Amino acid sequence: MAAQIIDGRKIAEKIYSELHSDIASLKKDGIIPKLTVVLVGDDPASAVYVRMKAKACEKLGIKSDTQIHPSLMTQEAILALIDQLNADKEVHGILVQMPLPGHMNSEKVIERISPEKDVDGFHPISKGKLQSGLDTFMPCTPYGVQKMLEYSDIEVSGKSVAIVGRSQIVGMPLALLLSQKANNANATVTICHSRTKNIDFYTKNADIVIAALGKPEFITADMVSEKAVVIDVGVNRVDAPENEKGYKLVGDVKFDEVSEKVRAITPVPGGVGPMTIAMLMYNTVKAAK
Ligand code: NAP
After folding, report:
1. From its phi and psi, is residue 2 left (phi > 0), alpha (psi between -120 and 50) or beta?
2. Distance (Å, rounded) from C-alpha 239 to C-alpha 262?
3. Atom of ligand 1 nearest to the CA of 214
4. pLDDT tens digits, 98-119
């Protein structure tokens, strides 16, 4: 039987409609949430992501400012810019689009952002608070995945979750989030990575499989069970000469065959991607509050 398709765009719209009233009441108090995005260099994918973020702000009535700098920008210059944004009372959220050019130290740049404005949730203080179960800015993609499960009425508590990928921006924080002693969490989580032997042993036995490894169509139907809910975080460009652009986007899951087998699945595009942006908007409003 074909799986339930979990529509990230629809769930993101629900999040936006909930944010409208918060934004309206902030405006009554004379506060307009503002997000500043810093983009260094001319990476085309980063430019697309930054435009999507600005568009979401515009739709919600959040002020946004995208600062584009040449790839030759120095580390000192970006740190000075962050100091300036930290001090600017009109700016509630600061996001530095990754990846930064090779000569910059990304950790140092992230550490310079004031934790009160860290809407990406990448600052060590935000990470530490997440690890300690304290209120903080949750990293947007993991938080988006958790919200997708919640809004799709998919129980997480007591379930076994296999996450493939252990990056600092997706796999690791997602494992923390879903295994916390908290609502929409309490799962038993296994983290798989490039050194894991027999990944299919873990994925086949999981109630929820989350693919976040950046390898096109890695998860196949024989790696999952019929009862599984499959969340595909991956976004990969693959050649598609038949398309006008010459490429198409695919996830880390072989959607056509896996969607014929499992209980529920997210598509790519239209799954986790829109949720990441929705949670960035959520965090920006939270920062303004
Ligand atoms: P990353 O930093 O490259 O991390 C990839 C992780 O996958 C690493 O932990 C790596 O293991 C593991 N891995 C790689 N090959 C593997 C294999 N063959 N078997 C098992 N594990 C393997 O990637 P990321 O930044 O987390 O992103 C992952 C994917 O999600 C990418 O496609 C990215 O574009 C996408 N993404 C989407 C969104 C969204 O909003 N939809 C947001 C962020 C990322 P090791 O640690 O052992 O190297």
Report:
1. beta
2. 27
3. 32
4. 999 999 999 999 999 999 999 9
Q: What percent of the chain has pLDDT over 70?
A: 100
Phi, psi of 170, deg, nearest 5: -125, -75
Catalytic residues: 53, 97, 120
List, chain by chain if needed, residues with CB within 6 Å of any ligand 1 atom: 141, 164-167, 169-171, 192-196, 199, 212-215, 233-236, 272-273, 276
Phi-psi region of 149 (alpha: psi -120 to 50; beta: other; left: phi over 0): alpha
Domains of the chain: 30-115 (3.40.50.10860), 139-272 (3.40.50.720)
* Residue 55 confidence (pLDDT): 97
Instruction: Give nearest CA residue, ligand 1 atom 16.
Output: 194
Q: What is the pTM of this model?
A: 0.97
Beta bridge partners of 5: 265
Write out the two tokens for 83: 């100091």
Identify any residues that bridge with 236 across adjacent strands, giving them in sequence order: 250
